[in-house]
Amino acid sequence: PHEDTKRDRDRIIALRLQLMMEQQKIYLLPKLTIGDLAQKIGTNKTYLSNCLNNSLHISFHDYVNKFRIDEACAIMDSMTIDSKHNMAEISVACGFNSISSFNRHFLKFKGVSPRDYLVEKCKQALWFFLAQCYSVKADSPAGDGATAGIVVQIAFSQKKTTKTKEKTKKGGIIGKNDVSLRHNCFYALQS
Hints:
7 helices; mainly alpha; 9% strand; 55% helix; disordered C terminus; three-stranded antiparallel β-sheet
């Protein structure tokens, strides 16, 4: 009976915790403590800690930081070419107190740095756009390889450099650039 009560209590705490994180996004508070969170879900920090450690098998800090990293990914995934976010702004918006903590936890949960995550997102978007561009031009009435003059310019203003590669009919390669994190990233296609 005692174990059943504990399991029921942990299930209730876990449910309240999940709802608090998903609906109220309390993890965005940079100075969130286990005591604050326990109070918000109507329990004490001992019960909350036991639920996290024994039922969910995760520490309080990892639990909160996982939500923060998922939020950062959502922000980066929703960024457009005209977005003007940098990693420091994203880390603060997600509840982190420092960029180093953000970078460390991002790597821990996603297996890549935030910069590499964003660069990969940019590459995927670029390849998708080029594939669309190529299929439209290849189906054009001319049908004579109109894609030969497409120039892709990737500007990463954080280092204030621009790298340009040309995609040619003969197989020029685009997207294998060693690029820095974008602050303002844009793709200009010219034919």
